[in-house]
Amino acid sequence: MDLEDLESPTSTSSCCARALSDSGTEADGPKLVQSRLQINEAICAGSALSPGSSFSEAFEGFSLLPSRLNSLGDEALSALLEDEDVPELTVDSIHKFIGSSRYHTAGGVPRPKILAQVSGTGLAPWEIHRPQKFVRDLVLRRCFSGRVLDAGCGIGDNALYVAKACPGAKVTAVDVVPRCLEFAAAKANLRNMRNQLDLVVADLLENDSGCLPPALGPNSTGSFDVVLDSSTFHCFSDAHRDRYVSTLRRLLRPGGLIYMNCMSEEETRPGGPRRITIADLRSVFCTANGWEVDGVEDSVVESHPTFWAGKAKARLFTIRKI
């Protein structure tokens, strides 16, 4: 099979992307509600479900770890819209907000509250409904085998692609935002991939392994062969990224690899995530800390076409645990 066939124009990802291009409102509800209904209808169009079916029905039977999740309800949506710090939940307003300095804390990192509130809506600029180009390239280079951890998987497009394209990979996709896993589960169900990956709601900043789900708990120490980080590391402050890297180090086996795609300092437009220089990355992943940076490549972070014309300058780092 040609790997490009895995993201054909008739796929659910493309349907969802087309649905998201129209973000009008209903007279009696916030814009996000209609957008989510459009996504739901796109999912149902490719399955046996009727357009009135819920997201829960779309992934009926899919085993979410640690628990089954529900869609963001109208009450929660109203609470978000009443918060003056939250942009209006439409494609245009979210993209404008994230592409501005308002998206950053005083320390220059994305505001965690905003990041959590827009993630999993299908409207964030990084939710492009297809795998990132660097992930497709890594698949062609046969970089994924054994146990693969997608750290900060978002709505699951990278994880689903790797699980489909790499039969030798056992993928565990993790995110702290439940809505992201709900979206990923719906896509997995539609593609008949319910048994091909695990979806885990967990906080990778939690360094007490006993507080994490079993898939990431003490018995999983040293059990992963590869970690995929697609735009996760560059969202953290110094303190948070140290905790994140500590968790990755515990989970990764000796000799295991991290493929980490981060926005670089060569991307000078305002907003977006933290920029990561080569020196900055090497200061964290250094020999003294038990890491070796095996490779640095020019890369891009792909985004929604209305945000920064669809891509930003980035680097792909290959990091080995020693």
UniProtKB/TrEMBL annotation:
<dbReference type="Pfam" id="PF13649">
    <property type="entry name" value="Methyltransf_25"/>
</dbReference>
<dbReference type="InterPro" id="IPR029063">
    <property type="entry name" value="SAM-dependent_MTases_sf"/>
</dbReference>
<feature type="region of interest" description="Disordered">
    <location>
        <begin position="1"/>
        <end position="29"/>
    </location>
</feature>
<protein>
    <recommendedName>
        <fullName>Methyltransferase domain-containing protein</fullName>
    </recommendedName>
</protein>
<dbReference type="InterPro" id="IPR041698">
    <property type="entry name" value="Methyltransf_25"/>
</dbReference>
<dbReference type="GO" id="GO:0010420">
    <property type="term" value="F:polyprenyldihydroxybenzoate methyltransferase activity"/>
</dbReference>
<feature type="domain" description="Methyltransferase">
    <location>
        <begin position="148"/>
        <end position="256"/>
    </location>
</feature>
